[in-house]
Each structure stands twice: as C-alpha cells, then as structure tokens.
Amino acid sequence: MSRALQQRLINPIVRLAWDWKLPIPGDALLETTGRRTGQPRYTPVCDGLDGDVFWLVSQRGRRADWVRNVEADNRVRLKVGGGRRARWRTGTARIVEDDDPRQRQRILGGGGRARRLCLRTSKAVTESPLTVRVDLEPV
After folding, report:
1. In whole angstroms, what is the distance from residue 23 CA to residue 82 CA?
2. Is 79 helix (H, G, I), strand (E, B) or coil?
3. Sheet of 40-46: strands edge to edge?
4. How distant, in Å, are the alpha carbons of 15, 69, 104 from that of 64?
5. CA separation (Å) from 75 to 2, 72, 82?
6. 86 burial level (CB within 10 Å; 0-12, 13-18, 19+)
7. Has domain 2-136 been given CATH number 3.30.1330.120?
C-alpha cells in the first residue's frame, strides 16, 4: 500500500513541484537512464548533498527501479537546490555494500529540518535499505 501511494500519488506531485520550480525543501531529483528504454527517468529523493558527494538511501534496496537503472548505467544527474538556484549536477553512482544505511540516514538528518523531515518520511516506508554514493563532478 505505501509503495503504491508513493509511486502513484506522492512522487508525481513532487516531480510536478520540480517542473513548476517549486521543489519541496529537503528534496532533490534523481535522473537515471532507463535500463530497457534508454530514456531519462526521474525519481524524487531526499537531499543527500555533502560537498561533491551525494548520498542516497534506497528504500527498497536493489529492487528499486532507480537502483536497477544505476546498475545498468551509473552515470546520473541530480537536481539540487531550490527555486532559481536549482541546478543539475552530473555524477557517477555506485552501491556501497559495507555502509549502514540507517546510520547514513541519521548522519544526513543533521543537515537541517527539511532534510530531516524527508528522511524520516522515507524511513517510515523503508523495507530493505541500501546506500548509494554519487561522486559529483565539480561545479
């Protein structure tokens, strides 16, 4: 139920907010390349920006479509920042097997109230978390 609610209601609303240049504070937008279609795929994620590294915690582990896309093509883009300051950053993603995703969420939660709220909401529907690290190209 929670996965369907997220995919059919919440994610489309968050993507629409990004389209209207009104992103929800604490959120970012991940662009992957579809593993079968080769088309861009957009997934709302919590803002895990830490300098030139962006941390993601997959709620569904390797079963998440965006993780499967990353495994097929690890070049990604992330839209970070709000309003007119929002910008795309390109990077290379990799799964971090030996990272504790719950601890990673706690660390990222120290990045402000909006990020903490996103992470708590995400954590509530997490089934089998997995950490993904994106090394971003310098601005």
Report:
1. 6
2. strand
3. 40-46, 27-33, 75-80, 87-96, 130-136, 53-58, 49-50
4. 17, 9, 18
5. 29, 9, 23
6. middle
7. no
Distance of CA 105 to the CA centre of its chain: 12
Backbone angle region of 107, left / alpha / beta, with phi > 0 → left and psi within -120 to 50 → alpha: alpha
Domain boundaries, the chain: 2-136
In tens digits, what is the pLDDT along the chain, a chain of 139 residues? 466 666 666 777 777 777 777 777 888 999 999 999 999 999 999 899 999 999 999 988 999 999 999 999 999 999 998 767 889 999 999 999 999 998 998 888 887 888 888 887 776 666 788 999 999 999 8
